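Below is a filled-in request sheet from our internal design queue. Each sheet records the structural input a requester submitted and the sequence that came back. We keep these sheets so that new team members can see what a complete request looks like end to end.

REQUESTER: design group, bay 2
PRIORITY: normal
MODE: inverse folding
CHAIN LENGTH: 363
BACKBONE (tokenized):
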């Protein structure tokens, strides 16, 4: 009986040891397997990211354009960018997310935001009349701040080019006043004159240059270090524009025209800085939610304050002097993008292109 007990005990110890060893080995294998899985997932994510970047670049190449796309999707809060072509072909400087492009009409939303900030400070209201600031303009007693923001002022103006560079805000406003036509017909008509007048109103209320007010309320709070008005430095460092086609030839830029586009086209920025601005605006970091609702008319499906609103999103376009800029935010697709081109062909091409890019970003 004693021998049997000893044998049983020994057998139990052996079995326990084997199970113990087997269990330890399984744990190590499991950990190794889990680690391998994580590695595979990371590699797959990198491959997917690389494939997405290649897909985005392929759209640029198919359309034969140069520029930068900055985007954010539902996969990550991280801002990503894709660039193709050259900011300066002669010096072989490539486009990047930090390349400066002229904003063109995308600047209008900055000016509109400054107006809303002044409204929140009780300096004026949406119903304030234009004749409080520029009484010599016909029908200014009927034109409101809201009309100017929404291009329903009845004012018409093309893009006349000054014979010389306009050197300050007052000269840009006076240029517009001398060349606009006020019809009294308050239907929608897109014109830079509305926003040049709004910029002038900002300077009159604050007794400061437009650029100073922009720096105070938008540039400095958001740390937009690469956002600046037209000056000699930006002329030398911003992306050049190029004619569409296989041959690389410079597109002429009229800096005299840009100098006249106060508040609506004389601002330069990088795609990343612009993305920071629109994100801050939408996330109520510049103005409260109620103020944004007022400015955008509750995101009504129409043009308002620099944006075209549609169901579940908004967009903005800016085309000037060979720059083609397209902002697109489709909340249903979770695709938020800014496309800036310094070599393109038309706004129709850019709008079609942003749709293609949006589908890739959202995939």
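RETURNED SEQUENCE:
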């Amino acid at each position: 009986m004693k021998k049997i007990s000893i044998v049983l005990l020994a057998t139990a110890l052996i079995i326990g040891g084997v199970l113990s060893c087997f269990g330890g080995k399984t744990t190590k294998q499991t950990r190794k397997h889990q680690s391998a899985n994580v590695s595979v997932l990371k590699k797959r994510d990198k491959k997917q990211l690389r494939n997405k970047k290649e897909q985005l670049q392929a759209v640029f190449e198919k359309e034969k354009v140069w520029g930068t796309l900055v985007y954010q999707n539902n996969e990550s809060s991280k801002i990503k960018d894709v660039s193709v072509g050259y900011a300066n072909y002669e010096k072989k400087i490539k486009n990047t997310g930090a390349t400066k492009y002229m904003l063109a009409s995308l600047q209008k939303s900055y000016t509109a935001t400054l107006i809303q900030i002044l409204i929140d400070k009780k300096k004026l209201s949406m119903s304030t009349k234009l004749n409080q600031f520029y009484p010599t303009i016909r029908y200014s007693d009927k034109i409101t701040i809201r009309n100017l923001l929404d291009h329903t002022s009845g004012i018409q103006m093309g893009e006349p080019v000054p014979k010389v560079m306009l050197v300050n805000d007052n000269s840009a406003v006076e240029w517009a006043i001398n060349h606009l036509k006020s019809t009294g017909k308050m239907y929608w008509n897109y014109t830079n004159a509305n926003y040049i007048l709004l910029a002038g109103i900002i300077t009159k209320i604050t007794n400061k240059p437009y650029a100073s007010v922009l720096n105070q309320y938008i540039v400095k709070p958001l740390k937009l270090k690469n956002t600046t008005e037209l000056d000699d430095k930006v002329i030398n460092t911003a992306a050049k524009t190029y004619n569409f086609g296989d041959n690389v030839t410079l597109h002429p830029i009229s800096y005299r025209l840009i100098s006249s586009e106060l508040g609506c086209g004389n601002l330069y920025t990088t795609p990343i800085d612009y993305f920071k601005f629109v994100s801050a605006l939408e996330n109520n970091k510049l103005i409260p939610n109620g103020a944004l609702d007022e400015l955008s008319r509750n995101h009504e499906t129409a043009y308002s304050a620099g944006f075209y609103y549609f169901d579940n999103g908004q967009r903005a376009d800016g085309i000037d002097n060979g720059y083609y800029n397209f902002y697109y935010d489709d909340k249903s697709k979770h695709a938020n993008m800014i496309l800036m081109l310094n070599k393109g062909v038309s706004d129709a091409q850019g709008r079609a292109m942003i749709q293609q890019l949006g589908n890739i970003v959202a995939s």
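SHEET NOTES:
- Residues 1-26 have pLDDT under 50 and may be disordered.
- The longest strand covers residues 76-84.
FILED BY: M.R.
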